[in-house]
Design goal:
The complex is a heterodimer of chains A (about 110) and B (about 120).
Chain A lengths: L2 E3 L3 E5 L4 E8 L6 E6 L6 E6 L3 E5 L2 E6 L4 E6 L8 E8 L5 E3 L3 E6 L1
Chain B lengths: L3 E4 L2 E4 L5 E7 L5 E7 L6 E6 L6 E2 L6 E3 L9 E3 L8 E8 L11 E2 L3 E5 L1
Parallel strand pairs in B: 2-11
Antiparallel strand pairs in B: 1-3, 3-8, 4-5, 4-9, 5-6, 7-8, 9-10, 9-11
The chains are: A mainly beta (about 110), B mainly beta (about 120).
């Protein structure tokens, strides 16, 4: 079956760096997305990786290793507003988007 | 309108009743999607539409129907609601020519539905 694994919850300190991991097992691969979702709100797009390596966008970076079925989202200089759930999603060979359950990130002052 | 709107924001519904969740986008995106989000589970695709006039089934289509008469609107209908359909429903759209899922999706604010 198809599977996306992420930690359920993580805690980090304001100003620090946190890495949220995502591993996937899907039938084929056509890209990996990260979305941010604040409580009670809609998901919003953060990043898309289709090739191996690191994509940097401001305080957020996303890494992909296709051979390992692995990605991570790196958040630097954490701010209280970064408290949210982070959703990993993979596009399989049929161009279906498979979503992970999300990682709830709690930022403490 | 800017982006995607959904209505109603929330609804409490008696089991067995018919309900239509509305979704409208003004971005002229060709693809639209309906998801449900339940605690502890990822977003699950109910139905999708790659372009006006076409629809397809997602992962959990049973008990739901959709139509796509024009580019902007993509209503989701529960013909006879059951308690297991209690969930948060998100509509999304993307400017996609591939039939799905390699383009950023833009989400509406969601509809919180409770079926008693």
């Amino acid at each position: 079956g198809q599977n996306i694994d992420q930690p359920t919850e993580m805690t980090a300190t304001e100003g620090a760096i946190v890495q949220i991991n995502c591993t996937y097992q899907t039938s084929g691969f056509n890209g990996l997305f990260w979305y941010q979702q604040h409580a009670g709100e809609a998901p919003t797009f953060l990043s898309y990786n289709v090739l191996d390596g690191l994509e940097e966008k401001g305080r957020f970076s996303s890494f992909l290793s296709r051979s390992k079925g692995y990605s991570y989202l790196l958040l630097k200089e954490l701010q209280m507003k970064d408290s949210a759930s982070y959703l990993c999603a993979v596009t399989d060979s049929n161009y279906q988007l498979i979503w992970g359950a999300g990682t709830k990130l709690i930022i403490k002052p | 309108i800017a982006g995607i709107t959904q209505a109603p924001t929330s609804q409490i519904l008696a089991a067995g009743r018919r309900m239509t969740l509305r979704c409208t986008q003004d971005m002229r995106h060709n693809a639209m999607y309906w998801y449900r989000q339940d605690l502890g589970l990822g977003l699950r695709l109910i139905h999708y539409s790659n372009t006006a006039g076409t629809t397809g089934k997602g992962e959990v289509p049973d008990g739901y129907s959709v139509s796509r008469a024009n580019t902007d609107d993509f209503p989701l209908t529960l013909a006879s609601a059951v308690p297991s359909q209690t969930s948060v429903y998100f509509c999304a759209s993307s400017d996609s020519t591939s039939g799905g899922a390699i383009d950023e999706q833009f989400f509406g604010p969601g509809t919180r539905l409770t079926v008693l």
